[in-house]
Design goal:
translation initiation factor activity, 40% strand, mRNA binding, mainly beta, 2 helices, four-stranded antiparallel β-sheet, WD repeat, WD40/YVTN_repeat-like_dom_sf, disordered N terminus, six-stranded mixed β-sheet, TIF2A
């Protein structure tokens, strides 16, 4: 096993027997090195800045690892724990336990450096919108939680002070704290007694404004997704309703709203029809049309130069890689059955993974170059997780020097061997790019098949030519019989 390159990135890989840490690309000997041997666990998650790693070893044992050395630095015994999360900088551990009564303060905030519990409160249920209960900005300067009809703020340096100030928002059902910086908080209030639902943005701080800096109201709203940009200047709001009253969609109605904290824009993002991928500026003006195709996923390169447009889930896995700066497509490929996908922190590589329990077969990892050419592939008998260790993109150089030929590179493909790295074989790096096929609903495909069977035609160009020849042949035979009949009657 080759020595780990201290300047390389790291990849967490978890299977049934636990997780291990690989060194990331570029691979010195054609395959990754093992930086941390397999550790038995049920789950493992990095902090947002990648400084700490939380490892659930059982339903009561939680271990914290320092990612600079990947050594265990703290272990917590928390009985009946249902969920655990690290604060963005890895300063605090937050746990959620089963609770029978409101007197049981089942949410506990632990300071990792000392192992002490610094805050407790009760939370009845845990959902995607309510966990983690206490939210931190990325720099941990701001901390807050949602309570009945209000958002409570804490002093992140001293939780013993309790709630230091409150923002009252009657009926608040979900909220999102801006991350970089934590200057604003967005709150969602559902429809009630004929009043429309709304999303409001408030400034944070003790002297925060009691009036929102931006607000957007809408009817027919069941749930929302709140997504802040980096810089805390804009908020994207996906508004969804269970029923589409226009009867245009069986799956309900969705609209995309955009609000800015300086109140310069507040309205709908125009969704073009037919469905296509489009880049917009901060005023919702189209900048670049990426065309139509079987796509449902966009992954933006952390360096801001490239993006990947992909179709995962129930789509065939087509991927198109674009150079946004030069507004051109770099390449296309396919990663079938991908469950997760993400750019590397340095912006040079794109990793997809097929994982269980979503898919029980063909589990594996693929790493592509920024232009879509395959760099590395490894299959597993069973794979639960594969993700990059978070790093600041500023740590790495610019990508201008990356735009060069990669034809000489080879792909390293290994057969299923658990999490070992033993066998391998080489194959061409640049597989033939497949042009994405337009999506066709099942009834349309069936209709085409029936038409082909009845009339001798097909959807391919070659079969269309054969059908044309057959038609011409039949017409000639028909004309010949008509001529013979005319000659006989005379």
């Amino acid at each position: 096993m080759a020595a780990a390159n201290p300047s390389s990135m790291e990849i967490l890989v978890r299977g049934p027997e636990g997780f291990c840490i690989w060194t990331g690309p570029p691979f010195g000997n054609g395959e990754p090195s093992i930086k941390l041997e397999r550790v038995p666990c049920n789950n493992a998650t990095f902090s947002e800045d990648g400084s700490k790693l939380i490892v659930m070893k059982s339903d009561s044992v939680i271990s914290i690892y320092d990612c600079s050395s990947f050594k265990e630095i703290r272990s917590f015994q928390v009985s009946n724990v249902l969920a655990a999360a690290l604060s963005p900088c890895g300063t605090y551990l937050q746990t959620f336990q089963k609770s029978l009564t409101p007197q049981d303060k089942n949410v506990v905030l632990w300071k990792i450096e000392t192992g002490d519990a610094v805050h407790h409160h009760f939370q009845k249920n845990m959902t995607k919108t309510t966990w983690p209960s206490i939210r931190f900005s990325s720099d941990e300067v701001v901390a807050c939680r949602m309570a009945t009809n209000e958002i409570q703020f804490f002093d992140p340096t001293d939780f013993s002070k309790g709630t230091v100030h409150r923002l009252r928002i009657p009926g608040v059902a979900a909220f999102a704290l801006s991350m970089v910086p934590g200057s604003h908080v967005a709150a969602f209030v559902p429809e009630s007694k004929g009043s429309p639902a709304s999303v409001q943005i408030f400034a944070c701080g003790k002297d925060m404004q009691t009036q929102p800096v931006a607000r957007r109201s809408f009817f027919r709203c069941s749930t929302v997704q709140l997504n802040w940009n980096r810089g805390s200047t804009g908020l994207l709001v996906v508004v969804q309703s269970d029923v589409d009253k226009t009867n245009q969609s069986y799956y309900g109605e969705s609209k995309l709203n955009y609000l800015t904290t300086d109140a310069t824009h507040e309205g709908l993002v125009p969704l073009l029809m037919p469905a296509s991928a489009t880049l917009f500026d901060k005023k919702c003006n189209p900048l670049l049309e990426l065309g139509t195709g079987p796509y449902n996923t966009v992954r933006w390169n952390p360096k801001g130069k490239f993006l990947c447009l992909a179709g995962f889930g129930n789509l065939p896995g087509d991927m198109a890689f674009w150079d946004y700066v030069n507004k051109k497509q770099l390449g296309t490929t396919r990663a079938e059955c991908s469950v997760t996908s993400e750019w590397s922190p340095d912006g040079r590589y794109f990793m997809t993974a097929t994982t269980a329990p979503r898919l029980q077969v063909d589990n594996g990892i693929k790493i592509f170059h920024y232009d879509g050419s395959l760099y590395f592939k490894k299959m597993f008998d069973k794979l639960y997780q594969a993700e990059w260790k978070p790093e600041s993109p500023d740590r790495f150089g610019e990508i201008a020097e990356l735009v060069k030929s990669v034809d000489s590179l080879k792909v390293e493909e290994t057969k299923p061997q658990g999490q070992g790295l033993t066998s391998k074989k080489t194959a061409p790096v640049n597989p033939p790019a497949q042009k994405p096929a337009a999506y066709r609903p099942p009834h349309a495909k069936n209709a085409a098949a029936v038409q082909a069977e009845l009339f001798g035609g097909n959807t391919t160009e070659q079969m269309s030519k054969n059908a044309l020849k057959n038609k011409q042949k039949r017409e000639k035979q028909k004309a010949k019989k008509a001529a013979e009949a005319a000659a006989g009657s005379s």
